[in-house]
Task: inverse folding
């Protein structure tokens, strides 16, 4: 009888968690949409940078950024056209694409055997 009560209690907990998780996901989406709307309004005529606003009892901080994504070949071509002074203004930070990296891991598996047929190495 106790096992049945524990199972029922556990099932109720899982169901309650699921309802809460669905609600939380919806609220996070709603909050993100509101944040975008607020930032668009506050930053409409502002320069790039961090801006702080006082609104009623709230202190709001919004950041206006400019970012670009370029293919490596495009970046190389563009930078070669810049002067030395223009190149100094560029901050380039390489970023690993997990999706592409994982794909490369899957498609690039190499086995190397040493003198001993029992010893093999796998490179990822």
Result:
């Amino acid at each position: 009888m106790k096992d049945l009560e524990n199972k029922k209690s556990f099932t109720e907990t899982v169901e309650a968690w699921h309802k809460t998780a669905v609600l939380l996901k919806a609220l996070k989406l709603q909050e993100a949409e509101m944040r975008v709307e607020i930032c668009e309004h506050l930053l409409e005529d502002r320069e790039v940078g961090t801006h702080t606003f006082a609104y009623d009892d709230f202190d709001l901080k919004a950041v206006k950024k400019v970012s670009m994504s370029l293919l490596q070949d495009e970046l190389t071509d563009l930078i070669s056209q810049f002067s030395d002074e223009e190149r100094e203004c560029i901050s380039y930070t390489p970023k690993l694409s997990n999706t592409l990296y994982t794909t490369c891991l899957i498609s690039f598996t190499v086995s190397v055997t040493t003198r001993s047929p029992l010893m093999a190495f796998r490179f990822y």
